[in-house]
Write a structure and sequence with these properties.
Elements: H1 22-31, E1 44-45, H2 48-58, E2 65-69, H3 77-81, E3 86-91, H4 97-103, E4 111-115, E5 132-136, H5 142-152, E6 158-164, H6 165-172, H7 182-188, E7 191-199, E8 204-205, E9 212-219, H8 228-241, H9 249-261, H10 266-279, H11 293-305
Parallel strand pairs: 2-3, 2-5, 3-4, 5-6
Antiparallel strand pairs: 1-8, 6-9, 7-9
Helix pairs in contact: 7-8, 8-9, 8-11, 9-10
Length: about 325
Amino acid sequence: MTVLYRKGLHTVGNALSPLASVSTTRSVMERHGLGTKKALGQHFLINDGIVRHICELSGVQSDDEVLEIGPGIGTLTVALLQKARRVIAVERDPDLVPILNETCAAWRDSLAVLQKDALQLYPKDMDEQPRSLIANLPYAVAATLVLDCFQRFESLESATVMVQAEVADRIAASPGVKDYGAFTVKLGLYAHPVGRFAVSPGNFFPPPRVNSAVIRLDRIDLGSQSDETIRQATTVMADAAFASRRKTIANSSLTYFVARKGTDAKEELRSTLSAVFEEAHIDLRRRGETLSLDEFMTLGRVAYQHGLVSSLH
């Protein structure tokens, strides 16, 4: 086996990740008789400058425990291993695990590789809990993974992730714009964006058909409102508010709850919702996309107090 990477030594051209090129990526894949798998959304990063920028935006420190999802052949992993105390790399594709162990061999004591679907990853699967998520995420599940990680891993302080540009737009959206929706509200209960940069398709092999963005999110402390019960109630009310996006929040919410509790409960639900919106000081004629996170949290708290959401989440 050719040893390409040694801890503490400069690589050719001072590249942080010597894997970040088309030629090296092709060579590694071909040596193992593999090609990229469209079904798994595999697009490997081939620009060392982008790798550096990800590390800089993440603020990764030498004492950090980093979670990386979808490490592929280790392009970002080898950079993280030079900067963090330890990296937990979660790879779904079993064919890539031997490659990852090879390319990161010089840091084997600082690397834990889990061959697992990240959507099924839980704290019990790891000996130590991560402080940072830093990853080029599989685009098909990127939004779900970001939210899930903040929900499942209380130790997670930040996430710096490569996602499809439109997902980054949804993450960073403000009330009143088209990208603002239930996902924005739900994620906002845990974290907020603090930095972002664009990444064009040419920085990947093979190039995706969409534009990408790296975005950093930091966990937020909502104080007394961070109670999990209130978070869950707020999540339900966000789903209700955006269930029928073109409807007013009153009509969209009524449609949502009737679908779950039955038409026999329609008039009772209408009355309860009216009381909830009045107590929360939310005009019934507004649409969901106009409500701020604070307004949604107030709505969630009042809805829970009225028993509207306790049996739905």
